[in-house]
Design a protein that fits this description.
Number of domains: 1
Structural class: mainly beta
Radius of gyration: 12 Å
Order of helices and strands: HEEEEHE
Largest sheet: 5 strands, antiparallel
Helix content: 10-25%
């Protein structure tokens, strides 16, 4: 079997994840090719949708928050 990562097991849909720079993202779609997220500020989604490659340094640095 090829080296495949199960993105759906790494990131919860509608989960909140904090980046090292302090930004909090809500994952709205978790696909094998990318994570689609929105930045959360004051409890609301802001700005354009952000695509994060699941094997990127940013994705690896995200920490789940509640």
């Amino acid at each position: 079997m090829a080296n495949t990562i199960m993105i759906q097991h790494m990131f919860k849909k509608d989960g909140f994840y904090k980046a090292p720079d302090g930004k909090v993202y809500k994952i709205v779609v978790s696909e094998i090719w990318n994570l689609r997220a929105f930045e959360i500020q004051n409890g609301k989604m802001t700005g354009p949708m952000v695509k994060i490659h699941p094997e990127s340094d940013l994705a690896k640095s995200l920490v789940e928050v509640e």
